[in-house]
Amino acid sequence: MKQTTKKIASLALSFALALTLFAGAPVFADDPAVVPAGSQQQNASGSTQTGSSTSTSDTSTPAPTPVPDAFISNYSVDVKDDSQLYPGGKMNLSITVVDEWAGTHNAQLRARINSSSFVGKDAVVPYDSTTNAYKFEFKDIEYLGGDNTFKFDIITENASEARAIITLSLPINQCDERPEATPTPTPAPAEVPKIMVKDFTFGGNSVEAGKEFTLELTLFTTSGNTNLEDVMVGLTFPSDSKNVSLASGSMNTYVGTMGPNATRTISYKMVTSATMEPGSVNITVQLTSKNGEAASSPISIPVTQPERFEITNIEAPETMMMGEEGYLSVTFVNKGKSSINNLTAEIQGENLANPGQSQFLGNVAAGTENSVDFSVMASAEGVINGKVILSYENSKGEVATVEKEFSCTVEAMPVIDDPGMMDPGMMDPTMGEDVEGGMPIWGWALIVVGVGAVAAVAVVVIRKKQAAKKLAQLEDEDEDI
Q: What is the pTM of this model?
């Protein structure tokens, strides 16, 4: 009994001691609107909010109640009318924020833009007790340019609770400064090239009448900034001319498109009349296109007749006596249709006593025949090998020549000094005697030489008559042709 009383007293004393200890401990107000002193709210941008507190004891500081962090768990950006957000452009921004502290209060959350680069209406999210995540929908947010960091304040406000602010931020990567507008260049006015005939060829310096030739035209376009379309080339002949025509093909040629500073070559097969007089044919080249100016270019083609000037006959003595003078006759004819000019005849050769003889005969009209004579003497016994050269200017103004060779045998002059060679009946009875008043021997020698000269002249006259007869025959033949 005594021991039981001691145990009860011991328990009472212990209980009294415990009451004394609890009585000395501080008492805190259980008000949810009061944020303990020293507590901080840290946002995603690093800014903080410090709450106020009232201590019931001056001798002790209670441990701070931690405030859970708020952070952005997800977001999406919808830029209107473009893939980039330029100054003046608008976007819709959806941000999901996790805030455990706000979820512990019966609070309505408001998100307000806190940035000089963006402007728009607040986003309000009502209280949801089932989750600590809140999705803020910002509509038609306009980007003003500058910093691309989107800052916003989350405000917890309720009539029964104190106001708290959390500041969060995130970069909007779609933001970009609008590039400077490049002025649209004014297109230059269309500069259409012009077309012309740059050059033409026909196979030489002239064409021969009656023969086919190829006319090549080189077309050229001037500078410009566009193409010539549907280029056409046409040939026009004089209306009264029958001297030239196409051998084949068409007079109009389609070329097509030609750019600036371009060249193009086209060709035509042509032929001239065989009977036309020497001269030239005139052709006009017509150049047209779809979008360019029409142009014309006259060209002229010299036409000549074939040369038919020739030596038809040459007459020279076959045999000559040494010291005798012979005659050479040359007959020539112009069978062509154009005259030859400045005809010159010359004789050259070996064993000639008088070489280099030359005669100017002038112009020879078409269809005309004529002749020229030369004297021939040998410088020694043997053979004369010579040639006659006729030089003239043709219808092209070129110097041409024709020539023909001849030869002649030169023999020694016979000497009559043998009396036995004379007819006895012809001999003077007084020959060999000194007859007073009679003819001396040298006189008879002169008579013999004179007779020989007369005979030579007779030969020349006969030959000239023969040449004249042949010439008349040739003229009759030409008339028959």
A: 0.42
